[in-house]
Amino acid sequence: MAALTAVVAVTLFAALAFAVVRRLRAHAEQVDALHERIRELSARLDSTEQDAATALAQADIAESVLLDKGVADEEDLEAARVRTTTDAFGHPRARDGELH
After folding, report:
1. CB of 43 closer than 8 Å to CB of 36
2. Angle between helices 2-69 and 74-85 in degrees, nearest 10
3. Hey, how many other C-beta atoms are within 10 angstroms of the C-beta on 30?
4. Residues 92, 86: contact at Cβ < 8 Å?
């Protein structure tokens, strides 16, 4: 009887251990997938930041050229900035904080 109880206990322990190991492996796979997703998003964010910095530098160069050539003055450039940062009613454009 004691031997049967020991066999049942060992069998239950083995089944429980097997279930725990299987669950840990599933969680490890999820962590790996999330890590890969974070790496991809980080790379995309870095690329977007570089694109934004390049666009800002090009806008500064364009403003300088317009000023140097006499095509526009500071007031014209400021009016253009206001038009691009406000809606049709002159209110600042709402930002939802989301990256698209």
Report:
1. no
2. 150
3. 10
4. yes
Contact 41, 31 (CB under 8 A): no
CA distances from 22 to 15, 35, 70, 80, 89 (A): 11, 20, 72, 61, 59
CA dihedral 17, 23, 28, 32 (to 10 degrees): 160
Assessment of whether the complete model's pTM goes beyond 0.90: no
Write out pLDDT tens, residues 37-94: 999 999 999 999 999 999 999 999 999 898 888 888 888 888 888 887 776 666 676 6
CB 62 within 8 A of CB 55: no
Q: Which residue has the tokens 């009887």?
A: 1
